[in-house]
């Protein structure tokens, strides 16, 4: 496939490519830790409840700090914020290598996610300052491709590292990726644009603008509903997969850890393939049908996973499930990108992240309770049924909004506030 002129212009943007490369490297390390942390928690505690607790603790910063951070990120130098958060995470992740106490691991996980909750909206808000407006959706798509690629490679490398060097070496690898990301960020030659009027607004007013902006945008509100459903399902999949490997296939130790890593990698590979196909066919298939069709197909796959007779069938179903998930990934992000004003992105993304993490924390608690009294099989069954029951409701809810979106309608922050005050 030939590279379009607009794509070549994006690749020639040195500042954006430095940011993209640095974050691709750090996300690679994250993908390894994403697999390694639950395994270490389970290794230290041996309890599904403790495993659930670790997920819950790591989501709290996104709920508490996320919306607050969004207000200040719209005021601060975003490049400086990103460098500081990379340095903090480099140090903290390295400390996990020496951790022998599960409660200390909880504390370190909380600090890592606190830095991540500040970093994520800063990065999302920084991209529009590095690329032209007509290239923004392309930049988002390229970032998603990088993320999904490392989601494939990360678990595979994690399986190799865990098998050959031991579980804890995964955290050393992740720590080094944050250091590399920091160095790439330092190399970005960029002058931060002047502060917007958020600097002169009271804190609570600025926070309220971000919340009301989402509430008054029909498109953003509806794609947030979709993201909420995805967050709940992902929580069930995370706990269900780990327990499924250990319980149903009766494998223990490093082999079950490798099998868990492999399944997460296979699902991510399906997602990246689907993301690439969407980039080719998005003009042919409407985003609404990609989103809702993908959710339906994933629901069917999760129900079949619960009845998988062997690991080969299981791997195939994880691949198709990841492929289906891509239908509700890039299109949703494109809706957010097209319907959010640059000067309020930090607050919108932070509020959205906090909302999604709140849904995740509830889902993790429910999934942990189910797993404690049942098995990973039931978690997949519940997740599949939720998708198949909720998808028709989403079809009805989004029929009048997402199906008619043809232009990039963007509200100003003051417009959102005026609608609330009336």
From TrEMBL:
CDD domains: MFS_MefA_like. InterPro entries: MFS_dom (IPR020846), MFS_trans_sf (IPR036259), TM_effector (IPR010290). Keywords: Cell membrane, Membrane, Transmembrane, Transmembrane helix, Transport. Its main location: membrane. One of its GO terms (molecular function) is transmembrane transporter activity. Residues 15-402 form the Major facilitator superfamily (MFS) profile domain. It is a multi-pass membrane protein. The chain crosses the membrane at residues 18-41, 53-73, 145-165, 225-246, 258-277, 289-308, 314-336, 348-371, 377-397. It is found in: Cell membrane. GO terms for cellular component: plasma membrane. This is Putative MFS family transporter protein. It comes from Fictibacillus macauensis ZFHKF-1.
